[in-house]
Amino acid sequence: MTVPTTTPFPGGTILGYPRIGRRRELKRAVEAYWAGRTDAVDLEVAAGTLRRETVQRLVALGLDPEDGSVPGSFSYYDQVLDVVALLGAVPARFRDLLDADDGSLDLDGYFTVARGRGEDAPLEMTKWFDTNYHYLVPEISETTPISFADHRVVREYAEAKEAGVTTRPVLVGPVTFLALSKSADDAGDGFHPLDRLDDVVAAYAELLRALAAVGVPWVQLDEPVLVTDSVDADPERVDAAIARAYRELATGLAPASADDALDTVPERPRLLVAAPFGGLAAPGADGRPARDGLALLAGTDVDAIAIDLVQGAVPRGSAPDGSVPGLGTKTLVAGVVDGHNVWRTDLAARRGTLEALRGLGARSLAVGTSTSLLHVPHDVDDETWSGPSAERAGRTEALRRWLAFADQKVGEVTTLARALTDGPDAVRAELEEASAALADRAAATGVVVPAVRERLAALSATDFARGDHAGRVAAQRESLDLPPLPTTTIGSFPQTAEIRRTRSAWAKGELADDAYRAAMRDEIARVIALQEDIGLDVLVHGEPERNDMVQYFAELLDGFATTDLGWVQSYGSRCVRPPILWGDVTRPAPMTVEWTRYAQSLTARPVKGMLTGPVTILAWSFVRDDQPLGDTARQVALALRDEVTDLEAAGTAVVQVDEPALRELLPLRRTDQPAYLDWSVGAFRLATAGAASSTQVHTHLCYSEFGEIIGAIDGLDADVTSIEAARSRMEVVPELHEAGYARGVGPGVYDIHSPRVPSTTEVTELLGLATSAIDPGLVWVNPDCGLKTRGYAEVEPSLRHLVEAARTVRAGL
Question: Is 693 in a helix, a strand, or coil?
Fold first, then answer.
């Protein structure tokens, strides 16, 4: 067995690494498997190659190949689904997928739980804490099978070991897994998934024994539930579950020795518990006492604790000297390199943070990332910056100096680790280079645009308010003349391979502007005709010209740059390239008017103008970190406000400003949420308040829990809000009813994140649930989200079923 060093991770470590591949190899391999072009063996081979290349790359970047500094954080689809597979904890509708002998899922079963089959809906999807990553929500009841069913973690460790690297397996911790789960349909009244803690902990204990048996020195268990008050479980119950779980897993199992020799065969590897996405110590909320997750973990027998020092402050212990009782037997992994954003680290400042941590009394201190690097692209040295915004800014090489992607962040970790062990003189050149890059960024032209700052300073309360809601309803009823339960879609239509090729050829200069515009107009005309044939009431132009709902606008706004290779995983095989918002935001010219005007010229039915809202543009970009988010949001909102004005002038009667990320950015601590909701709601209102009363303003929110922000949704003052609701079977509807929500609302009736085609009966049932709880006069009928990622073979019958269901329910009103 490999014996851990006395001082763990002396060269630094990271909490995780991108798993899609530097050229999205995993995405292509998985989608080929789904399409039937390859089999499970081919997929396993491709994934194994990617895993080996990843761990060897991390060693080449400076992480130690022998002490567990290299994380084993691979997933085929989702890290929470991985725990479902580990435990065999699938809902009743998927139990037939489990192996009869050991309760495990094969690859086909694993993906079926994620994507659904026939009438069996997949697991619900929602956002992973405050990131743009989506996880699958486990469904747990008293009868859910839970055992150590899947040995994949053990096999992947052995695979890396064979390649010469001793990895540290990474899993979602048992308490976070259960706290983020929902009660399954067959759960009894009063049941909470945390009621199954003993069963889950027993399975984890069995896994730890299996890992110890093959020589694993360290295991990382992620427990970000410790930094949030926003889970469906009492924080005090969560804290008690943490203490109980790690009493069993840490104290109850004999650990690997830190000495040079082993007196006994260990029952478990050493445990690193990570708590990313916020500070572990926080003031109380809702009258509760303050929580101190660091003290809680220090009071257990875990071997190391990783804390986020980017979103969390340097903690102070309860001892008179500021130390943390119990930390003297543990390693503190200091997350001083930002795993959530792409800006270069201020190494000199972070070295000071590391020095401040010495007073906490930890046995040893190691340098790490604040979160997994899953949320950033692979390598800035691979990148070019494309699109009009980068060309206008001339920022390509400057951006390269200002940024750090995953590989560069590993380098920052190892640099700070050397400073910690050998002193600052050992890394003087690196410290000075980082400081020079930060100074260059601060002084660059475009980071501050005086005209933008002056316009913001001149805003008054009237710039954030529209006319009376009742008056708007009357004006829009007269101008639009829509039937009850009006039908529409969220915006995008499927982007065919031909459309993507056309757009790519134009972007590369291989297709003339006139030919490109003609191709886009042909597609818009086809989509308008299809919607009229299906019978939709409010149409969209389909967005064939848009590569992504945020990137499209980033390419047309000054202050942004977009990458060619900066891919990050959003969910499953879905990858996005978040733009980089580096300077003050301005709109050089209208961005959407040409396409919307053309679409409206083809039909007498209203066509929605489609914009992405300021909060979502921020949430799905890598945002500047040198000013408050609210200031940046208002800059984007002013650009969108001008776009709304131009759309109205072009004859657009319905404008949709999407804010699917409104809930995503909600701070994890309740005490921080009011300030966020104030500026985020204000930014949306600033973008839309200039619209006339007769212009119907829509917004869209998706894949989040909405109960906590219904007041904010109402505060947006949109005329119609469409909300994801199909996978959760209208869970949001009773919450809207209870809150007295009195605006138009479209709870989604078609789950577009699954290839399933919902039947007319299924959609009718969902509409029945909606109209039984909400005034039917307020209800709209729409899919959960845009249709870009689906194919027409699924979309057309699904929309026909949607329209047919709407007509059936409408006839019964």
Answer: coil
pTM: 0.90
Q: Residue 773's closest CA among 724, 739, 726?
A: 739
DSSP secondary structure code for residue 463 in this structure: G
pLDDT one-digit tens code per residue, 172-226: 999 999 999 999 999 999 999 999 999 999 999 999 999 999 999 999 999 999 9
The helix-helix angle for 513-534 and 792-811 (nearest 10°) equals 40
| Contact in structure between 302 and 8 (CB atoms under 8 Å) | no
CB 658 within 8 A of CB 611: yes
φ/ψ (deg, to 5) at 270: -70, 145
Phi, psi of 561 (to 5 degrees): -135, 150
Q: Which residues share a beta bridge with 581?
A: 560, 623
Q: Can you tell me the distance from the alpha carbon of 404 to that of 413, in angstroms, rounded to the nearest whole number? A: 11
- The dihedral formed by the CA atoms of 349, 355, 361 and 363, expressed in degrees to the nearest 10: 100
- The C-alpha atoms of residue 53 and residue 58 are separated, in whole angstroms, by 9
Burial of 264 (0-12, 13-18, 19+ CB in 10 A): exposed
Paired residues of 607 in beta bridges: 539
- Assign residue 3 a region (left: φ > 0; alpha: ψ between -120 and 50; beta: otherwise): beta
- Which of 134, 340, 698, 753 is flagged as catalytic? 753
DSSP tag of 247: I
Nearest CA to 476 out of 663, 157, 718 is that of 718
Buried-state track 547-576, b at ≥16 Cβ within 10 A, e below 16:
bbbbbbbbbbbbbbbbbebbbbbebbbebb
Q: Given this model, what pLDDT does residue 286 score?
A: 53
Ranges of residues in the chain with a pLDDT under 50 are 1-5, 259-262, 287
706 neighbors 664 (Cβ within 8 angstroms): no
User: Which residue type is seen at 198?
Assistant: D
Q: What percent of the chain has pLDDT over 90?
A: 82
Question: Can you read off the two tokens belonging to residue 662?
Answer: 């409104």
**Catalytic status, residue 753:** yes
Question: Residue 71 pairs with which residues in a beta bridge?
Answer: 168
Q: Is 39 helix (H, G, I), strand (E, B) or coil?
A: coil
Tell me what pLDDT residue 535 has.
98
**Do the beta carbons of residue 643 and residue 590 sit within 8 Å?**
yes
d(CA 194, CA 241): 8
Our measurement of the distance from residue 144's CA atom to the centroid of its chain's CA atoms, rounded to an integer in Å, reads 27
CA angle (436 as vertex; 433, 439 as ends), nearest 5: 155
| Helix spans in 382-427 (H) | 388-393, 396-402, 406-422
* Token reading at 811: 């006839």
SS3 386: strand
Q: Give residue 258's pLDDT.
A: 52
